[in-house]
Amino acid sequence: MLMDNLKLIKHLYARAGFGLCFSDKRSEEHHSVKKEVKELFKASEAAEPLSVVQDNIDYMKLATADMQAKKQIIQQQRQQEKDLNLAWMNRMSITNAQLREKMTLFWHNHFACRINNAFYAQQLNNIQRNYALGNFRDLLLAVSKSPAMLQFLNNQQNHKGHPNENFARELMELFTIGRGNYTEQDIKESARAFTGWGFDKDGVFKVRPFQHDNGQKTFLGKTGNLDGEDIINRLLEQKQTAVFISNKLYKYLVNEVPDPAHVHEMAEVFYKANYEIKPLLEYVFTADWFYDDKNIGNMIKSPINFLVGLNRQFYITYQRPEVLLEFQRALGQVLFNPPNVAGWPGGKNWIDSSSLMYRLKIPSIVLDGGLIDFAGKAGPEDEAYLATMRNRQTAVSTKVQAQPDWDKFLQTIPKNLSKTDIAQFMLEPALSAALQNAAAQSADIKTLAIELVSTPEYQLC
Amino acid sequence: MKRRDFIKNSALASGAFLIPAFLKPLEGIAHEQISGYKNLVIIQLSGGNDGLNTIVPFGNDIYYQKRSSIAISQTDVIKLNDMQGLNPNLSALKEIYDQGWMSIINSVGYPNPDRSHFRSMDIWQTASDSNQFLTTGWIGRYLDSNCQACNKNPYAAIEVDDTLSLAMKGAGMKGIAVQDPNKLYQTTREPFFKNLVHEHDNELLNEGNLGYLYKTMIETYSSADYIQKTSKTYTINAEYPATPFGNQLKTVSKFINSGLQTRVYYVSLSGFDTHVGQQNQQGRQLKIYGDAVAAFIKDLKQTGKLDDTLVMTFSEFGRRVEQNASNGTDHGTANNVLAFGGKLKKVGIFNDAPNLTLLDNGDLKYQIDFRDVYATLLDKWLDVNNKIILNKNFNGLDFI
Fold first, then answer.
1. In principle, which of A101, B92, B137, B236 could form an S-S bond with B167, CB 3.0–4.6 Å?
2. What's the pTM value of the predicted model, to 2 decimals?
């Protein structure tokens, strides 16, 4: 049987990272949860930026360029988008800084942004990574001043006398206090405070004084010649911001259904810590309720979480990494392409008939050319099916060109583990009788592993 | 990776295994129960189709002034009245129009239009206000509404595609994406999956997200079986153009004619984002669209299903009235919606051609909220009160 504290550590890694691997296990099974939380933060101390996109394409050229030049610009843009996506996928799949990347993914969804300029998208992503475990005020301010967000939410068009309210509205509705805690008048007033916030052609933040409205504004009860930073400070003075972020974080890390009492505790910690993110996370990861049975193995993995977890567990390398983009598309989560500024809705929204079938099939595609060698009660037609799949195995492998490191995977499994133990290690929910049977009947560990990651249970973390 | 690449034809003998009775809710359904079953077919043109070069306002000089190099010349337009006519690439639809099976609704849009493809498509698919973010689609909410005419299965709404659009996702119920019924069937018959479906513990089904996953898997398993078995009983006799879009409509026809208990079908055609060299690009796409739709409508007429079918075509936005410098058009706002069917109440051109003088910043002003179009379909075709789906009551229109 797996040791009790291993169950807790496994849960911690499933939520604070992308899941525990067998290779992580030996050193960690005797750790206390507290010590393990420390380790998590330690591994994530440094924030190494992504730097794959080097050129800031001048999109102004698009207007005047001839057909050939236009084509080139668009080609370069597509290449950059692809490079950036795959660089982050790779980072998440191999990094030791799991917590930082998992939180970067959280902020990526919280400050959801979709723009053509991959250089700015990368910059925003690095801001989110840099402050992922830092201070929320710093993060919010840096995001608000980033070319990506200024452009995405039209603040470049927010001028004195002609305010564009898009940024101001989302700042309140989605980034800080949430609906129902401000008035339309607050939006109008704060939009005026952000007039003139923009960036120059090199992507450097600028406040353009001649476009800025210096008049008096009243925002959430405070009156004065407020500017953008004043608005952000005013929003952070509201405890509601701490509640709003805590609630969202709870839904990301603990349970899709928030427990108001726990969220309240989190908000108190967050607010008292002046919006430092680290103490908030430490509080969650060491809270008793984080390890309640009802909070274990019940969250639907996001497609990215699912793919990254698979990559990490089996040390997969991709000769044709584009296949990861195809998987992202099929599963409904393409990095840097959230559906809108509200981000991916998540939870059950990830799952429909087709996305579930893809999720059940992708692991075997990546690991073994699409074969799930099932030894159970196979009827004659099942035998025929498996025979066909065996024939197609090479063709599928050639197409996907993914290489798991089976040796490493098999060697790092402790020898004293039974098949049932292995199954329980790889899946977060408790094993059903059907899965225990399947585990017992499986031909070997490799077959067992492929079966396990092809189950509905594997969709949960 | 497409599903079709996962699994080629296997030697699986069909129907050889037993499925528990609870997985086969519709076995032995009498044919009479199916006839009179109304279908809605939604066709999405992705990328923002230029409505002004689709249904051309050739009677308006401003059109020719604003589009000096990309306007469709008066001699090429297939005239419908003395103001509007069809793009010549839609010639196949002329016959459909003349038969009284087509209706054109001009200037459909919404307040505070968004010119981003993704956002505007979201708005159309979720039927939200432009500053509102909904996580469910309007067809999904129709499935959720538990209306009498809906059945409680994913195949109540089928998208002929590999993935499912937001429009088809409700909070509790979701439609199903089926590009090819055989391939979906094969995927679900993976022996290991089959075992999970048959051997699962029933208590699992009540357990939160795990229950939801198993229920979805079992429903998919059951739906794949039902769709494959039912649709293969019908063979299409009509000719369809050999395009992927033509094939998709052919699949819809197969589904309808085989008596599948599906209320809504969803099909997309992309390639309408014509910033550069619009005439050729849009022309190509319109021809693909027009030829396939004409074949589909004629096929349904032949099989006696046209009266039970309503087709609606939309795009996330129209394009700016004035062309750009690259012989293309940029993102705009209001657009036309096309409806087809055997039981249209108002055939032909439903309302006035778009006003090209009274513009909003160079863009058409909408005259009809797209949710009034949806409300019409919901109230009069899908038999559900539109307020339940659209969150507020819309009056609807008079085209059906």
1. B137
2. 0.88
